[in-house]
Amino acid sequence: MQKIYVNGQIYTGKLPLVSAFAVEDGLFTFAGSDAEARALAQPGDEIIDLGGRFVCAGFNDSHMHLLSCGLALRRAKLNEHTGSLRELVGYFRDFAKDGPNERGWIVGRGWNQDLFADERRMPDRRDLDQVSQEYPVAAVRCCGHVAAVNSKALELLGVTAATPAPEGGEIGLAGGEPDGRFYDAAMDLIWAAVPEVGKEDVKAMIRAACRRFNACGVTSCQSDDYATDWRLVNEAYRELKDAGELTVRVNQQANFHDVESLEAFIAAGNGPGAGDNLFRIGPLKMVADGSLGGRTAYLSRPYSDDPSTRGLMLYSQETLDAVIGCAHAHGMQVAIHCIGDGCLDAVLDAVEKALSAHPRADHRHGVVHCQITRPDQLERLVRLNMHIYAQTVFIDYDSRIVRARVGDLAESSYSWKTLMERGLTVSNGTDCPVELPDALRGIQCAVTRAPLAGGEAYLPKEAFTVQEALDSYTSAGARASFEERVKGRIEPGMLADFVMLERSPFDVPASEISHIPVRGTWLGGKNVYMRE
Ligand SMILES: [Zn+2]
After folding, report:
1. Which residue from 219, 325, 482, 484 could staple onto 354, CB 3.0 to 4.6 Å apart?
2. 197: Cβ–Cβ under 8 A, 6 or more apart, which residues?
Protein backbone atom coordinates (compact mmCIF):
# COMPACT_ATOMS: atom_id res chain seq x y z
CA MET A 1 0.00 0.00 0.00
CA GLN A 2 1.33 3.40 -0.99
CA LYS A 3 0.87 6.71 0.73
CA ILE A 4 0.42 9.40 -1.89
CA TYR A 5 0.98 13.01 -0.82
CA VAL A 6 -0.56 15.65 -3.08
CA ASN A 7 -1.12 19.43 -3.19
CA GLY A 8 2.25 20.34 -1.67
CA GLN A 9 5.34 22.34 -2.60
CA ILE A 10 7.98 19.63 -2.81
CA TYR A 11 11.70 20.36 -3.07
CA THR A 12 13.07 17.04 -4.32
CA GLY A 13 16.68 18.23 -4.45
CA LYS A 14 16.11 19.92 -7.81
CA LEU A 15 14.09 22.92 -8.99
CA PRO A 16 11.35 23.50 -10.00
CA LEU A 17 9.27 22.34 -7.05
CA VAL A 18 6.75 19.56 -7.70
CA SER A 19 3.43 19.01 -5.95
CA ALA A 20 3.27 15.30 -5.13
CA PHE A 21 5.27 12.30 -3.98
CA ALA A 22 4.59 8.76 -2.87
CA VAL A 23 6.01 6.42 -0.23
CA GLU A 24 5.91 2.65 0.14
CA ASP A 25 7.84 0.28 2.43
CA GLY A 26 9.97 3.10 3.82
CA LEU A 27 11.13 4.38 0.42
CA PHE A 28 10.04 7.13 -1.94
CA THR A 29 8.38 5.61 -4.99
CA PHE A 30 7.47 8.73 -6.96
CA ALA A 31 7.84 12.51 -7.20
CA GLY A 32 5.94 14.61 -9.72
CA SER A 33 2.59 16.24 -10.42
CA ASP A 34 -0.73 15.68 -8.65
CA ALA A 35 -2.27 14.31 -11.85
CA GLU A 36 0.53 11.74 -12.26
CA ALA A 37 0.29 10.84 -8.57
CA ARG A 38 -3.45 10.26 -8.70
CA ALA A 39 -3.06 8.16 -11.84
CA LEU A 40 -0.63 5.95 -9.88
CA ALA A 41 -3.10 5.22 -7.10
CA GLN A 42 -4.17 1.60 -6.60
CA PRO A 43 -7.16 0.47 -4.55
CA GLY A 44 -6.18 0.65 -0.89
CA ASP A 45 -3.62 3.45 -1.34
CA GLU A 46 -3.97 6.41 0.98
CA ILE A 47 -4.06 9.92 -0.51
CA ILE A 48 -2.92 12.72 1.81
CA ASP A 49 -3.56 16.41 1.06
CA LEU A 50 -0.59 18.55 2.11
CA GLY A 51 -2.66 21.74 2.05
CA GLY A 52 -0.01 23.60 0.04
CA ARG A 53 2.73 22.99 2.63
CA PHE A 54 6.43 22.66 1.88
CA VAL A 55 8.23 19.29 2.02
CA CYS A 56 11.90 18.45 1.50
CA ALA A 57 14.24 15.61 2.47
CA GLY A 58 14.81 15.33 6.25
CA PHE A 59 17.61 17.53 7.57
CA ASN A 60 21.04 15.99 8.13
CA ASP A 61 23.10 17.65 10.89
CA SER A 62 26.57 16.68 9.72
CA HIS A 63 28.48 17.45 12.90
CA MET A 64 27.16 17.42 16.44
CA HIS A 65 27.25 15.54 19.75
CA LEU A 66 24.00 13.66 20.25
CA LEU A 67 24.77 12.25 23.70
CA SER A 68 25.86 15.62 25.10
CA CYS A 69 22.68 17.11 23.70
CA GLY A 70 20.67 14.42 25.51
CA LEU A 71 22.50 15.16 28.74
CA ALA A 72 21.86 18.90 28.45
CA LEU A 73 18.18 18.22 27.79
CA ARG A 74 17.83 16.00 30.85
CA ARG A 75 19.16 18.53 33.33
CA ALA A 76 16.58 20.71 35.04
CA LYS A 77 16.57 24.10 33.31
CA LEU A 78 17.01 26.27 36.37
CA ASN A 79 17.92 29.22 34.15
CA GLU A 80 14.29 29.39 33.05
CA HIS A 81 13.05 29.60 36.66
CA THR A 82 15.44 31.95 38.34
CA GLY A 83 13.01 34.87 38.98
CA SER A 84 12.96 34.05 42.69
CA LEU A 85 14.39 31.43 45.03
CA ARG A 86 10.84 30.28 45.74
CA GLU A 87 10.08 29.80 42.04
CA LEU A 88 13.35 27.94 41.57
CA VAL A 89 12.67 25.48 44.41
CA GLY A 90 9.07 24.97 43.26
CA TYR A 91 10.09 24.19 39.67
CA PHE A 92 12.94 21.94 40.78
CA ARG A 93 10.62 20.02 43.15
CA ASP A 94 8.20 19.33 40.28
CA PHE A 95 11.08 18.28 38.07
CA ALA A 96 12.31 15.85 40.77
CA LYS A 97 8.98 14.00 40.83
CA ASP A 98 10.21 11.94 37.84
CA GLY A 99 13.14 10.71 39.94
CA PRO A 100 16.88 10.98 39.23
CA ASN A 101 17.86 12.39 35.85
CA GLU A 102 21.59 11.81 36.05
CA ARG A 103 23.04 8.55 37.33
CA GLY A 104 21.06 8.41 40.54
CA TRP A 105 21.25 12.17 41.08
CA ILE A 106 18.83 14.98 40.37
CA VAL A 107 20.84 17.66 38.61
CA GLY A 108 19.89 21.11 37.36
CA ARG A 109 21.81 24.09 36.09
CA GLY A 110 21.36 27.79 35.56
CA TRP A 111 20.33 29.60 38.77
CA ASN A 112 21.58 33.12 39.39
CA GLN A 113 20.92 34.62 42.82
CA ASP A 114 21.36 38.14 41.40
CA LEU A 115 18.06 37.62 39.60
CA PHE A 116 16.07 36.36 42.62
CA ALA A 117 13.33 38.87 43.49
CA ASP A 118 12.76 37.47 47.02
CA GLU A 119 16.06 36.61 48.67
CA ARG A 120 19.29 37.45 46.84
CA ARG A 121 21.28 34.54 48.25
CA MET A 122 22.54 31.29 46.84
CA PRO A 123 20.40 28.21 47.47
CA ASP A 124 21.69 25.96 50.26
CA ARG A 125 21.14 22.41 51.53
CA ARG A 126 17.87 23.32 53.26
CA ASP A 127 16.39 24.79 50.08
CA LEU A 128 17.36 21.70 48.15
CA ASP A 129 16.02 19.37 50.87
CA GLN A 130 12.64 20.68 49.72
CA VAL A 131 13.43 19.31 46.25
CA SER A 132 14.17 15.78 47.48
CA GLN A 133 15.14 14.06 50.70
CA GLU A 134 15.23 10.67 49.01
CA TYR A 135 17.82 11.35 46.27
CA PRO A 136 20.98 13.46 46.10
CA VAL A 137 20.34 16.81 44.42
CA ALA A 138 22.83 19.20 42.80
CA ALA A 139 22.01 22.67 41.45
CA VAL A 140 24.78 24.31 39.42
CA ARG A 141 24.96 28.08 39.08
CA CYS A 142 24.62 29.61 35.58
CA CYS A 143 28.37 30.24 35.46
CA GLY A 144 29.29 26.63 36.32
CA HIS A 145 31.59 27.77 39.16
CA VAL A 146 29.29 27.08 42.12
CA ALA A 147 27.01 24.15 42.95
CA ALA A 148 24.64 23.62 45.84
CA VAL A 149 23.61 20.14 47.07
CA ASN A 150 21.03 18.78 49.52
CA SER A 151 21.57 16.94 52.83
CA LYS A 152 21.24 13.53 51.17
CA ALA A 153 24.12 14.44 48.84
CA LEU A 154 26.30 15.66 51.72
CA GLU A 155 25.66 12.37 53.49
CA LEU A 156 26.58 10.40 50.37
CA LEU A 157 29.71 12.48 49.80
CA GLY A 158 30.70 12.05 53.44
CA VAL A 159 31.42 15.77 53.61
CA THR A 160 31.46 17.19 57.16
CA ALA A 161 32.79 20.38 58.75
CA ALA A 162 36.12 18.55 59.07
CA THR A 163 36.47 17.82 55.31
CA PRO A 164 39.35 19.83 53.88
CA ALA A 165 38.61 21.77 50.68
CA PRO A 166 40.83 20.88 47.72
CA GLU A 167 43.23 23.51 46.40
CA GLY A 168 41.39 26.09 44.30
CA GLY A 169 38.07 25.30 45.96
CA GLU A 170 35.94 26.04 48.97
CA ILE A 171 33.26 24.17 50.92
CA GLY A 172 30.62 26.49 52.34
CA LEU A 173 29.98 26.43 56.09
CA ALA A 174 27.14 27.86 58.18
CA GLY A 175 26.99 27.58 61.96
CA GLY A 176 29.93 25.15 61.90
CA GLU A 177 28.23 22.73 59.46
CA PRO A 178 28.50 22.41 55.66
CA ASP A 179 25.79 24.57 54.09
CA GLY A 180 25.72 22.50 50.87
CA ARG A 181 27.59 25.02 48.70
CA PHE A 182 30.69 23.98 46.79
CA TYR A 183 32.90 26.51 45.04
CA ASP A 184 35.15 25.89 41.99
CA ALA A 185 37.56 22.97 42.51
CA ALA A 186 35.51 21.70 45.47
CA MET A 187 32.77 20.76 42.98
CA ASP A 188 35.03 17.90 41.87
CA LEU A 189 34.05 16.19 45.16
CA ILE A 190 30.46 16.12 43.86
CA TRP A 191 31.21 14.93 40.32
CA ALA A 192 33.56 12.21 41.59
CA ALA A 193 30.61 10.75 43.52
CA VAL A 194 28.22 10.68 40.56
CA PRO A 195 28.57 7.10 39.28
CA GLU A 196 29.96 6.35 35.83
CA VAL A 197 27.33 6.66 33.18
CA GLY A 198 25.49 3.37 32.58
CA LYS A 199 23.91 1.97 29.43
CA GLU A 200 20.36 2.84 30.50
CA ASP A 201 21.46 6.46 31.07
CA VAL A 202 23.04 6.56 27.64
CA LYS A 203 19.87 5.17 26.08
CA ALA A 204 17.71 7.72 27.88
CA MET A 205 19.97 10.54 26.64
CA ILE A 206 19.77 9.25 23.07
CA ARG A 207 15.96 9.01 23.24
CA ALA A 208 15.67 12.57 24.55
CA ALA A 209 18.03 13.95 21.92
CA CYS A 210 16.24 12.08 19.11
CA ARG A 211 12.91 13.60 20.14
CA ARG A 212 14.43 17.06 20.09
CA PHE A 213 16.11 16.50 16.73
CA ASN A 214 12.90 15.17 15.16
CA ALA A 215 11.07 18.30 16.36
CA CYS A 216 13.61 20.32 14.34
CA GLY A 217 13.04 18.21 11.21
CA VAL A 218 16.33 16.36 11.61
CA THR A 219 16.31 12.72 10.45
CA SER A 220 20.07 12.09 10.15
CA CYS A 221 23.08 13.22 12.11
CA GLN A 222 26.80 12.68 12.23
CA SER A 223 27.64 12.57 15.88
CA ASP A 224 30.83 12.54 17.97
CA ASP A 225 29.89 10.57 21.12
CA TYR A 226 32.98 8.67 22.20
CA ALA A 227 33.70 10.99 25.13
CA THR A 228 31.74 8.12 26.70
CA ASP A 229 33.25 4.62 26.25
CA TRP A 230 32.64 3.55 22.64
CA ARG A 231 31.57 0.02 23.57
CA LEU A 232 28.78 1.35 25.76
CA VAL A 233 27.74 3.93 23.16
CA ASN A 234 27.61 1.39 20.32
CA GLU A 235 25.63 -1.09 22.43
CA ALA A 236 23.13 1.58 23.45
CA TYR A 237 22.59 2.71 19.86
CA ARG A 238 22.23 -0.87 18.59
CA GLU A 239 19.75 -1.84 21.30
CA LEU A 240 17.62 1.23 20.61
CA LYS A 241 17.78 0.49 16.90
CA ASP A 242 16.67 -3.12 17.42
CA ALA A 243 13.82 -1.92 19.65
CA GLY A 244 12.70 0.51 16.92
CA GLU A 245 13.41 3.50 19.17
CA LEU A 246 16.18 5.17 17.19
CA THR A 247 14.34 7.91 15.28
CA VAL A 248 17.42 9.69 13.90
CA ARG A 249 19.92 7.93 11.65
CA VAL A 250 23.35 8.21 13.26
CA ASN A 251 26.72 8.16 11.53
CA GLN A 252 29.28 7.94 14.32
CA GLN A 253 32.26 10.31 14.07
CA ALA A 254 34.61 8.06 16.00
CA ASN A 255 36.81 10.20 18.23
CA PHE A 256 40.23 8.69 19.02
CA HIS A 257 43.45 10.30 20.23
CA ASP A 258 46.06 7.66 19.42
CA VAL A 259 46.90 4.88 16.98
CA GLU A 260 46.63 2.10 19.52
CA SER A 261 43.04 2.75 20.56
CA LEU A 262 41.98 3.42 16.95
CA GLU A 263 43.47 0.09 15.84
CA ALA A 264 41.75 -1.75 18.69
CA PHE A 265 38.45 -0.14 17.70
CA ILE A 266 38.82 -1.15 14.05
CA ALA A 267 39.96 -4.67 14.98
CA ALA A 268 36.78 -5.08 17.07
CA GLY A 269 34.69 -4.97 13.89
CA ASN A 270 34.32 -1.22 13.49
CA GLY A 271 35.93 -0.82 10.09
CA PRO A 272 34.81 1.75 7.52
CA GLY A 273 31.07 1.69 6.93
CA ALA A 274 30.31 -1.00 9.56
CA GLY A 275 26.63 -0.94 10.54
CA ASP A 276 23.50 -0.08 8.61
CA ASN A 277 21.51 2.97 7.59
CA LEU A 278 20.30 3.60 11.16
CA PHE A 279 23.61 3.33 13.00
CA ARG A 280 26.88 3.29 11.13
CA ILE A 281 30.53 3.84 11.99
CA GLY A 282 31.72 6.96 10.18
CA PRO A 283 35.04 8.78 10.01
CA LEU A 284 37.85 9.12 12.53
CA LYS A 285 37.13 12.37 14.40
CA MET A 286 39.79 14.46 16.09
CA VAL A 287 39.60 17.90 17.69
CA ALA A 288 42.82 19.62 16.66
CA ASP A 289 42.39 23.12 18.13
CA GLY A 290 40.08 25.22 20.32
CA SER A 291 37.47 27.90 19.67
CA LEU A 292 37.47 31.42 18.25
CA GLY A 293 35.28 32.79 21.08
CA GLY A 294 37.77 31.55 23.69
CA ARG A 295 40.82 32.59 21.57
CA THR A 296 42.00 28.98 21.62
CA ALA A 297 41.59 28.33 17.87
CA TYR A 298 45.19 28.01 16.59
CA LEU A 299 46.17 30.83 14.24
CA SER A 300 49.25 31.25 12.03
CA ARG A 301 49.89 34.57 13.80
CA PRO A 302 48.89 36.23 17.11
CA TYR A 303 45.28 37.22 17.78
CA SER A 304 44.56 40.81 16.70
CA ASP A 305 42.80 41.52 19.99
CA ASP A 306 45.33 39.66 22.17
CA PRO A 307 48.85 39.58 20.70
CA SER A 308 50.05 37.41 23.60
CA THR A 309 48.45 34.28 22.10
CA ARG A 310 48.05 32.33 18.85
CA GLY A 311 45.66 29.82 20.44
CA LEU A 312 46.18 26.15 21.17
CA MET A 313 47.10 23.19 19.01
CA LEU A 314 45.79 20.08 20.80
CA TYR A 315 48.06 17.54 19.05
CA SER A 316 51.63 17.54 17.77
CA GLN A 317 52.22 17.21 14.02
CA GLU A 318 53.61 13.72 14.70
CA THR A 319 50.41 12.58 16.43
CA LEU A 320 48.17 14.04 13.72
CA ASP A 321 50.30 12.36 11.03
CA ALA A 322 50.21 9.01 12.84
CA VAL A 323 46.50 8.85 13.71
CA ILE A 324 45.20 10.34 10.44
CA GLY A 325 47.66 8.14 8.54
CA CYS A 326 46.45 5.06 10.41
CA ALA A 327 42.77 5.76 9.70
CA HIS A 328 43.48 6.46 6.03
CA ALA A 329 45.58 3.30 5.64
CA HIS A 330 42.63 1.29 6.99
CA GLY A 331 40.36 2.82 4.33
CA MET A 332 38.66 5.02 6.91
CA GLN A 333 37.52 8.58 6.27
CA VAL A 334 38.71 11.37 8.63
CA ALA A 335 36.87 14.47 9.92
CA ILE A 336 39.08 16.89 11.84
CA HIS A 337 37.87 19.83 13.94
CA CYS A 338 39.87 22.78 12.76
CA ILE A 339 38.96 26.43 13.35
CA GLY A 340 42.21 28.40 13.09
CA ASP A 341 44.35 28.68 9.93
CA GLY A 342 47.44 27.54 11.83
CA CYS A 343 45.64 24.35 12.74
CA LEU A 344 44.43 23.88 9.16
CA ASP A 345 48.04 23.94 7.87
CA ALA A 346 48.93 21.06 10.19
CA VAL A 347 45.80 19.04 9.39
CA LEU A 348 46.20 19.43 5.63
CA ASP A 349 49.88 18.45 5.95
CA ALA A 350 48.80 15.25 7.71
CA VAL A 351 46.12 14.48 5.12
CA GLU A 352 48.51 15.15 2.23
CA LYS A 353 51.12 12.80 3.73
CA ALA A 354 48.50 10.08 4.21
CA LEU A 355 47.31 10.49 0.62
CA SER A 356 50.80 10.34 -0.82
CA ALA A 357 51.55 7.15 1.15
CA HIS A 358 48.26 5.50 0.09
CA PRO A 359 46.66 7.36 -2.84
CA ARG A 360 42.85 7.17 -2.86
CA ALA A 361 40.61 9.15 -5.20
CA ASP A 362 37.28 9.41 -3.39
CA HIS A 363 38.50 9.77 0.21
CA ARG A 364 36.05 12.49 1.37
CA HIS A 365 38.35 13.47 4.21
CA GLY A 366 36.85 16.48 5.88
CA VAL A 367 37.51 19.62 7.87
CA VAL A 368 34.96 20.21 10.63
CA HIS A 369 34.21 23.96 11.08
CA CYS A 370 36.81 25.29 8.56
CA GLN A 371 36.44 28.88 9.74
CA ILE A 372 39.64 30.93 9.62
CA THR A 373 41.24 30.36 6.23
CA ARG A 374 43.83 32.14 4.07
CA PRO A 375 43.44 32.40 0.27
CA ASP A 376 46.30 29.89 -0.27
CA GLN A 377 44.46 27.41 1.98
CA LEU A 378 41.25 27.73 -0.03
CA GLU A 379 43.32 26.63 -3.05
CA ARG A 380 44.85 23.77 -1.10
CA LEU A 381 41.47 22.54 0.21
CA VAL A 382 40.26 22.39 -3.40
CA ARG A 383 43.40 20.64 -4.62
CA LEU A 384 43.09 17.98 -1.90
CA ASN A 385 39.35 17.67 -2.65
CA MET A 386 38.37 17.99 1.02
CA HIS A 387 34.84 17.74 2.37
CA ILE A 388 33.72 20.77 4.42
CA TYR A 389 31.56 20.27 7.52
CA ALA A 390 30.32 23.86 8.00
CA GLN A 391 28.12 25.31 10.77
CA THR A 392 26.56 28.33 9.08
CA VAL A 393 24.64 29.11 12.29
CA PHE A 394 27.98 30.14 13.86
CA ILE A 395 27.70 33.31 11.72
CA ASP A 396 25.08 34.45 14.23
CA TYR A 397 27.71 35.07 16.93
CA ASP A 398 31.05 34.91 15.13
CA SER A 399 30.21 37.63 12.62
CA ARG A 400 30.35 40.03 15.56
CA ILE A 401 33.82 38.98 16.77
CA VAL A 402 35.73 37.63 13.79
CA ARG A 403 37.30 40.91 12.60
CA ALA A 404 38.37 41.84 16.12
CA ARG A 405 39.91 38.40 16.68
CA VAL A 406 41.76 37.83 13.41
CA GLY A 407 41.97 41.20 11.60
CA ASP A 408 42.31 40.95 7.81
CA LEU A 409 42.27 37.13 7.89
CA ALA A 410 38.50 37.65 8.27
CA GLU A 411 38.33 38.69 4.58
CA SER A 412 39.05 35.12 3.39
CA SER A 413 37.40 33.21 6.27
CA TYR A 414 34.04 31.37 6.55
CA SER A 415 34.38 31.18 2.75
CA TRP A 416 32.16 28.17 2.24
CA LYS A 417 30.45 29.51 -0.89
CA THR A 418 33.81 30.02 -2.58
CA LEU A 419 34.75 26.43 -1.73
CA MET A 420 31.40 25.18 -3.00
CA GLU A 421 31.80 27.09 -6.27
CA ARG A 422 35.23 25.54 -6.66
CA GLY A 423 33.61 22.09 -6.54
CA LEU A 424 33.84 21.02 -2.90
CA THR A 425 30.84 19.61 -1.03
CA VAL A 426 29.81 21.73 1.96
CA SER A 427 27.51 20.01 4.44
CA ASN A 428 25.90 21.84 7.34
CA GLY A 429 25.23 21.30 11.04
CA THR A 430 24.99 22.87 14.47
CA ASP A 431 27.70 21.26 16.65
CA CYS A 432 24.82 20.76 19.12
CA PRO A 433 24.84 21.27 22.13
CA VAL A 434 27.00 24.27 21.15
CA GLU A 435 23.96 25.49 19.20
CA LEU A 436 20.36 24.28 19.23
CA PRO A 437 19.84 21.43 16.73
CA ASP A 438 17.70 23.79 14.67
CA ALA A 439 18.44 23.43 10.95
CA LEU A 440 16.33 26.41 9.90
CA ARG A 441 18.50 28.78 11.94
CA GLY A 442 21.55 27.51 10.06
CA ILE A 443 19.74 27.80 6.73
CA GLN A 444 18.81 31.41 7.51
CA CYS A 445 22.40 32.36 8.45
CA ALA A 446 23.73 30.62 5.32
CA VAL A 447 21.49 32.82 3.18
CA THR A 448 21.75 36.11 5.10
CA ARG A 449 25.35 35.82 6.43
CA ALA A 450 24.04 37.99 9.29
CA PRO A 451 23.06 37.49 12.95
CA LEU A 452 19.65 35.82 13.36
CA ALA A 453 18.19 38.94 14.92
CA GLY A 454 19.43 41.03 12.00
CA GLY A 455 22.44 43.26 11.55
CA GLU A 456 25.31 43.68 9.15
CA ALA A 457 26.06 40.82 6.77
CA TYR A 458 29.57 39.36 7.05
CA LEU A 459 31.16 38.73 3.62
CA PRO A 460 27.82 38.77 1.79
CA LYS A 461 29.53 37.39 -1.34
CA GLU A 462 29.72 34.09 0.57
CA ALA A 463 25.91 33.87 0.95
CA PHE A 464 24.22 30.65 -0.17
CA THR A 465 21.04 30.63 -2.22
CA VAL A 466 18.05 29.04 -0.45
CA GLN A 467 18.54 25.98 -2.64
CA GLU A 468 22.24 25.71 -1.73
CA ALA A 469 21.39 26.09 1.94
CA LEU A 470 18.76 23.32 1.76
CA ASP A 471 21.20 21.09 -0.14
CA SER A 472 23.88 21.69 2.51
CA TYR A 473 21.43 20.32 5.09
CA THR A 474 20.22 17.36 3.01
CA SER A 475 22.07 15.89 0.01
CA ALA A 476 25.50 17.28 0.99
CA GLY A 477 25.14 15.68 4.43
CA ALA A 478 24.34 12.36 2.77
CA ARG A 479 27.43 12.71 0.61
CA ALA A 480 29.57 13.30 3.72
CA SER A 481 28.70 9.77 4.86
CA PHE A 482 28.88 8.15 1.39
CA GLU A 483 25.07 7.80 1.35
CA GLU A 484 24.12 10.19 -1.46
CA ARG A 485 22.48 7.32 -3.35
CA VAL A 486 20.49 6.27 -0.29
CA LYS A 487 19.05 9.46 1.17
CA GLY A 488 19.01 13.26 1.06
CA ARG A 489 16.63 13.73 -1.89
CA ILE A 490 13.02 12.90 -2.68
CA GLU A 491 13.58 10.44 -5.48
CA PRO A 492 12.24 6.95 -6.17
CA GLY A 493 14.30 4.34 -4.32
CA MET A 494 15.64 6.70 -1.65
CA LEU A 495 14.83 6.43 2.06
CA ALA A 496 11.56 8.23 2.76
CA ASP A 497 12.98 10.66 5.33
CA PHE A 498 11.23 14.00 4.99
CA VAL A 499 10.18 17.15 6.81
CA MET A 500 7.04 19.21 6.34
CA LEU A 501 7.26 22.97 6.99
CA GLU A 502 4.34 25.35 7.45
CA ARG A 503 5.77 27.68 4.79
CA SER A 504 8.27 27.41 1.97
CA PRO A 505 11.75 28.85 2.64
CA PHE A 506 11.69 29.92 -1.02
CA ASP A 507 8.68 32.17 -0.31
CA VAL A 508 9.49 33.98 2.94
CA PRO A 509 12.05 36.79 3.37
CA ALA A 510 15.43 35.25 4.25
CA SER A 511 15.37 36.93 7.67
CA GLU A 512 12.23 34.90 8.55
CA ILE A 513 13.37 31.41 7.54
CA SER A 514 14.28 30.48 11.13
CA HIS A 515 10.70 31.30 12.23
CA ILE A 516 9.04 28.78 9.90
CA PRO A 517 7.46 26.10 12.12
CA VAL A 518 8.29 22.46 11.49
CA ARG A 519 4.92 20.76 10.98
CA GLY A 520 6.04 17.14 10.97
CA THR A 521 8.96 14.77 10.47
CA TRP A 522 9.04 11.30 8.88
CA LEU A 523 11.77 8.66 9.04
CA GLY A 524 11.55 5.82 6.52
CA GLY A 525 7.97 6.87 5.79
CA LYS A 526 6.96 6.68 9.47
CA ASN A 527 5.85 9.83 11.29
CA VAL A 528 8.24 10.54 14.20
CA TYR A 529 7.13 14.09 15.06
CA MET A 530 3.95 16.10 14.61
CA ARG A 531 3.48 19.67 15.81
CA GLU A 532 0.70 19.94 18.39
ZN1 LIG B 1 31.88 19.35 17.84
Report:
1. 325
2. 103, 228, 232
Distance 100 CA to ligand 1 centre (A): 27
Domain co-membership, 439 together with 333: yes
Q: Give the distance (Å) from ligand 1 centre to CA of residue 54.
A: 30
Looking at the structure, tell me whether residues 430 and 503 fall in a common domain: no
Mean pLDDT of the chain: 95
Who surrounds ion ligand 1 at CB < 5 A?
A: 431
pTM, entire model: 0.85
Strand stretches in 331-424, DSSP E? 334-338, 366-369, 387-389
The answer, yes or no, to whether residue 414 has pLDDT greater than 80, is yes
| Residue 267, helix vs strand vs coil | helix
Amino acid identity, residue 202? V
Residue 159 lies in a domain: yes
Is residue 307 located within the same domain as residue 382?
yes
Q: For position 309, which CATH number holds?
A: 3.20.20.140
CA of 369 to the centre of ligand 1 (A): 9
Show which of 161, 193, 225 is a domain's final residue: 193
> Which is nearest to 59 in space by CA: 273, 222, 246, 225?
222
CA of 337 to the centre of ligand 1 (A): 7
* 335 CA → ligand 1 middle, Å: 11
Task: Report CA(347)–ligand 1 centroid distance (Å).
Answer: 16
Q: How many domains does the chain have?
A: 3
The C-alpha angle with vertex 429 and arms to 513 and 476, in degrees rounded to 5, equals 95
Q: How far is the CA of 397 from the centre of ligand 1 (A)?
A: 16
Between the CA of 346 and the centroid of ligand 1 the distance, in Å, is: 19
